[in-house]
Amino acid sequence: MGYEAHRFLQMINGLPVECGMMNVQTKNGKIVGETGKWIVDSQKLSAAAKSKQIALSESIAFQNALNFVGAKVYKWENADEENMHKASSNSDLATYMPKGEKVYYSQPTDENLSDLKLAYKFDIYAEEPLSRQYVFVDAKSGEILGTEQLIHETNAPGTAVTGYSGTQTKQRLLKRGAVLILGNIEEASDQIEISQLFFAKCFHHFNPSVFIVQTGNVVEVFSTRVKEFLFSFNRNFF
């Protein structure tokens, strides 16, 4: 059709503007459409809004983010998860331990991006209870400015013919690109759990661009290349 799509991230003072993204559609070298949010004239922003002066250390901001999430266990505290992450990334430096990224943050409802604040952005991956989110901490006051959930879910009822328990009524927990089947999971045998993990490990062996995460009876497969979720299954998969 001759159409091309381009995505631009806005930077101010060398730092990214969170949600400052513009998607531009072109045809034959001409712009035919655009969507997104953008600060048209950054020179009109106040000196306070554009300031890069930080009054809070990254370590204190990180602790504030952890206090906000309040998880019992985080991914980087699990040695097996860390080792698998290093192996799948082919890097001994790979870790789930977040590093604060400096960004300009404004509330998602601020369509004009008029209330920018300098912030630390942390990717907090919690294992118990499970969650993953970006947490934005004000780099001056330490206040939690906002979050962006990276795991989205909802419940949907349904039925399924299982391999070991007949026809069962299930509650399907729909994640972002994932399906986790709930119900009668406690009946799973060790043999089935082992077969799941064996399948997952074989998948990883022949396709090293993925890594495997097993939580209880649930096995999840992620892509290391695009860092996105691929699929998951539990013992009723077999």
Structure write-up:
Strand 1 and strand 2 form a beta hairpin. Strands 4, 5, 6, 7 and 8 form a 5-stranded antiparallel β-sheet that branches. Strands 1-2-3 form a 3-stranded antiparallel β-sheet, with no helix packed on it. A 3-stranded antiparallel β-sheet has the order 9-10-11, with no helix packed on it. It has 238 residues and is α+β, with helices and mostly antiparallel strands. The protein is globular, with a radius of gyration of 22 Å. The protein starts with a strand and ends in a 5-residue tail after the last strand. The chain is built from 4 helices and 14 strands.
Short description:
The chain is of the alpha+beta class. The chain is 18% helix and 44% strand. 17% of the residues are buried.
Net shape: globular
**Residue share in helices?**
10-25%
pLDDT averaged residue by residue: 75
What is the count of helical runs?
A: 4
The arrangement of helices and strands along the chain is EEEHHEHEEEEEEEHEEE
The radius of gyration computed from the alpha-carbon positions, rounded to a whole number of angstroms, is 22 Å
What is the CA–CA distance across the termini? 43 Å
Helix/sheet category: alpha+beta
| Beta-strand residue percentage | 35-45%
Tell how many strands the DSSP assignment holds. 14
Please give the largest β-sheet. Answer: 5 strands, antiparallel
Instruction: Report the uncertain regions.
Output: 172-211, 223-238
